[in-house]
Amino acid sequence: MSELEISNITKDYGATRALHPVSVNVEQGEFVTILGPSGCGKSTLLRILMGIARPSAGEIRLAGTRIDPLPPEARDIAMVFQSYALFPHMSVGKNLAFGLRMKNVPKPERARRIEHALEICNLTGLVERMPRQLSGGQQQRVALARAIVMQPRLLLFDEPLSNLDAKLRDTLRQELVDLHRRIGATSIYVTHDQAEAMAMSDRIVVMDGGKVVEIGTPLDLYRAPTRAFTAGFLGQTNLITADADGDRARLPWGQTVTLSAPAQGTVRVSVRPETITIRQGEAGAGTVTSVSFMGANALYTVGIAGTTLKVSQAGAESLIATGNRVSLDFTSPLHLLVERKLAEAV
Amino acid sequence: MQAALRDPKVQLALLLLPGVGYLLIFFGSPLVSTLIGSLRLDDGSFTLQWYERIFTRATMLRGLKTSIYYGVAPVIVSLLASVPLALLIRQSFWGRKLFNGLYKLPMAVPGIIVALMVIIMAERGGFIDRVIAPFGLSLPKLVRDEWGIGVILASVWKQIPFMTLIITGAFAGIPEDIRHAARSLGASRLSTFVFVEVPLAMPGITAAILLTFIGSMGSYAIPDIVGPPSPRPLSVLMIFEFNEGRFEQVYAMGMVLSLFAVAVLLAYYALTANIGVNRTKGDE
Question: Which residue in A52, A73, A163 is closest to B186 by CB distance?
Fold first, then answer.
C-alpha cells in the first residue's frame, strides 16, 4: 500500500474538464514533482489534495484512510503556497504557532517544535518579526517552517520558489532538498520549471492539458521519454521523423541510424542535442545556421534536409562558423517515442 | 519672477497649492471662522460662555449625550447585521446578483424620506400595526419613543448598505491563499473567520464604524422627525438655536460635535496602527 493513493481523480468546471482521470501513487518519504505548463491542471490537483477544491470524481487515500470527503483541517496535510500566504497580522512566531494552537498541541511541545522548525529553516532570531519586515526569501522560509512544524503526513508545495529571483531560487531549492533529506516527509511539489523538477525530485509526474502524460524518475524521463511532450518539456530535444525497419531507421536526409527499440514504418525519435556529434566537412549534409558559445559547451543550429536540428558540442577547442558544411553522427541509439496519434505530437 | 520660480521652496509651495490650498479654503477657513465665531460676543469681545452653556445647561448636556447615543446605538445594530450580510454576499446563491444590486438602494434614499417611511410603517396605527392587528397583535411604541427606537431603526436602515459595502470590500481584500493556509493548518471555518479574517478586515470594519458613527451623530432629519420631543440631540438643538438667531451658540455646538468626530478619528488611527494594515501582497 502506498502512502498516498490518488485514484481516477477528475475535476469538471461546468462542461469543461480541467482534470482528466488522474491516478498517482506516492510512497512514504518520496519527493514527487508535478510538472507541466500553466493551465495543465497541476495546481487543481494540488488544491484537491489539500481539500480547498473538491474533485468531481475519484478518491484519495492517505495512509490507507480515504481523505477526499474530509475538510482541509482534518487531513493531516500542510501546504506551502506560491504567495507564501503568511498571516500578515501575526509575528513569525505566531504564524508558526497558529496551526499547533488549532490542533491543540500542548504548550511545551509547541515551543519545542517551533524552535526546531526555526532552526532548520534558518530563521533563528526572526521570531518577533512581522511578515512585512522580512525579505521574500525569509517569508518563504517562514511559510515552509509553518508547514513543517505541523509534522504532517504529506507536505504540498505550490510553486513555492517562483516568486523569488534566480539566485535566491537556487539557494532555497538546495535548502529544500537538504530539508527533505533530513525530515523525510512525503512531499508533492508543483512547478512549471523543469530544472527545478529534475534537481529535486525522486519522481516527476508530467502533466499537460489536464492529463498525466508520463511518470518517471528525472533520469528516465530525460533519457528515455516515451512522449514527445515529455521530451520537449524536460530539456531541449530534436524531434525527427524517420522511416523504421526493425532496429534500423533512415533519417529524411538518407542517413541510417540505430533505434532504441525495433519498429516498422514512420516513427518519431527524440534526439538530445548533446548526443549528436558535429564534424566539419565539405561532404556533410547539413549547414551551420547559427552558433552560440555558452562556455562549457557550444550550441549550434544545423539546417539539414529542410529541418533544423539543435546540436550541443561540449569542450570544443574551436568553433565551426556559420555557413560551413557539417556532418552529424548519432553515436547512441535514437530514442523512439510512443505516439497515440502522430498528428497529436507537437 | 523667473529667479523666484527656480527657488525649490517656491516650487514646492506651488506644487502643493492645488491640494493644500483647496483644503485651506474650503475646509480650513470655515472651521477657523466657526471657531472664532464661537468665541465671540456680539461686541466682538472674547468669551467662553457659549461652550459653558453646552456643558452646564441641562438640555444641552442631555443633547450631547443623545447625540452620542444616536451615533453609537445604530452603529452597533448595523454592525451586527452587516458582518453576516457581508459574509452572505460572498457566497454564491440563487438571485445573488439581484440582491447585490438591491441591498445598496437605501444609500440613495435621503434621511428625511427614511424618517417618513419609518413613521408610515412603524407608528402605532401605521402600516405594520394594521397588518398585524387582525391577529390580535400590536406594535410597541417605536416612533418618538423614549429610547429613540425609531431613530435607531431609520439610521440602521440607511447605514446597513453602506457598512455592508465597506465590510464586504474589507473581506474581499483578504487574499484567498491566506484563508486556505489557515484551513490547511487545521483551522475550521469559524476559527479561520475569528482568528484570521476578522483581524485582517478590521481596518475596513473600523472605517465603516467611524463613517456611520459620524454620519448618524450629525444627522438632523431622522431624530427631528422620529425622535422623541425630549431629549433632542445637538444637531436638532443647533437648528433650534439657529432659528433663534444665536449663531455663536450654533458655532460652539458645531465645534463640539466636530471635536467628537476628530476624537473618534484619532482613536481609529491609534487602533489601526496596531493592526497590520500593510498586507503582504500575494504577488511580490
Answer: A73
User: Measured between CA atoms, how close is A71 to chain B, in angstroms?
Assistant: 8
Task: Give the count of beta carbons closer than 10 Å to the beta carbon of residue B27.
Answer: 10
Cα separation, A176 vs A172, whole angstroms: 6
Q: What is the pTM of this model?
A: 0.79
Give the largest CA-CA distance in chain B: 86
Contact of B64 with chain A, judged by CB distance below 8 Å, is answered with no
Question: Is A73 in Cβ contact with B183 (below 8 Å)?
Answer: yes
Which residues in chain A touch residue B284, judged by CB atoms under 8 angstroms apart? 136, 163
How many Å is the Cα radius of gyration of chain A? 24
* pLDDT tens for each residue of B44-96: 888 898 999 888 989 889 998 999 899 999 999 999 999 999 988 888 888 88
Nearest to A48 by CA among A36, A34, A38: A34
Pair A336, A260: CB distance under 8 Å: yes
Contact between A85 and B279 using a beta-carbon 8 Å cutoff: no
Q: Which helix (H) or strand (E) holds B105?
A: none
- Identify the H or E element spanning B44: none
Q: For chains A and B, what is the number of CB pairs under 8 angstroms?
A: 85
- Say which residues have a Cβ less than 8 Å from residue B120's Cβ, sequence separation at least 6: B126, B127
Burial of B55 (0-12, 13-18, 19+ CB in 10 A): exposed
Q: Which of A304, A256, A214 is nearest to A223 (CA)?
A: A214
pLDDT band at B157 (very low <50, low <70, confident <90, very high): very high
DSSP result, A298-334: EEEEEEETTEEEEEEEET-SSPPPTT-EEEEEE-SPB
Chain A residues touching residue B178 (CB < 8 angstroms): 85-88
Cβ <8 Å between B184 and A132: no
- C-alpha B251, offset from chain centre: 21
pLDDT for A249-306, tens place per residue? Answer: 888 888 888 888 888 888 888 899 999 999 888 888 899 999 999 888 899 999 998 8
Q: Does B274 touch chain A (CB under 8 A)?
A: no
Q: In chain A, whose CA is at the least distance from the CA of B201?
A: A89
> Do the Cβ atoms of A243 and A265 come closer than 8 Å?
yes
Asked if ipTM goes beyond 0.90, one says no
Cell numbers at residue B160, please?
446597513
The answer to whether the beta carbons of residues A28 and A185 sit under 8 Å apart is: no
Q: How many C-beta neighbours within 10 Å does residue A245 have? A: 14
